[in-house]
Specification:
13% strand, disordered C terminus, Heat Shock Protein 90, 9 helices
Amino acid sequence: MKLSSVILGIGKKFLLHSLFWLVVLLYFTFFFGFEDSAFMQVMNFSSFFLPVTILTTYTFIYRIIPRYIIPKKYLQFGLYSLAALVISACYITISAFYAKVLTSGYEYQGSFPITKSLIYIMISVYLVVALASAFSLLKYNYSTAAKNEELKNRILEAQLKLKEQELQYLKMQIHPHFLFNSLNTIYGLSLANHHTTSEMILQLSDLLDYILYQTKKPVVSLKDEIKHITNYIDLEKKRFQELLIVDFEIEEFIEEIQIAPMLLLPFVENCFKHGRGADGKLEISIKIKVKNDQLMFLIENSKAQLSAEHSENGIGLENIKRRLDLLYENNYQLDIETRPDHYYVRLMLKFSKNTVYA
């Protein structure tokens, strides 16, 4: 199959080149004669210049241009071009002599039906060489541009695939992390035979549906993300009971706003996992505000002054930082601050038409 296609390609190339040189021969015939000259006689004369024209053209196209113009070796190009022109000029002179002698039947007397001078013949030959060389350069530039564009597209496609794979890996990290925390909560209540255990299982199933299916989407509505944050807080309220104080403040926003799934929920998880005051109580303050093209997410939780530092290297927080880099690039600002008795996070997301979610 490959051999036949190669043979077909060679045959097609040979045919095109043959047609081109036939056109060149007709061009020489038309310009080298005059009105009353015999067509075949002028064609025979012109055919003597075809070999040197072909040889000079292919020398430039396949040797001089690829070796010196494309690598930008302009000095060598100038020297070799000059040498090629001098040698070809000699061959053109010799061809003109034999052409005139042979086509005139060795008769030097009388007027020969060729009106063009040797300089004109050389200009005509070199014009063909120049046009063919220019076409070769244009073809090379077009081919290079096409290859560069194809390579660029392949690189972008590979980067996109890597980005998607990394995002999927990050999501897979979030799922067991979130599930582990939630199951611990239900397990603790089940040991005490708490009456809200069954209700918590239903709430957890709703959250799992969000995690397993909704997070496969590139974006979800901000309303859905907030809904599941509220659901998660309700789960934790049953575990902490009176030891938990949550202030959840949401300003009104248009429902069309969308964000990457599971982007805000891990911050809330970290509050419950790492935050608790010296008195054993956990105070959490959450504020969500949308203004113009920006989302502001503020979350603050209490912590004991002598407790271990809030885990900034935990799987959830590092995961979120990486996802923000991948999804929002320069369209976000994340500030994390550890205070003596509080832990503070401020996230600003800019909704841009150029922002790409994957």
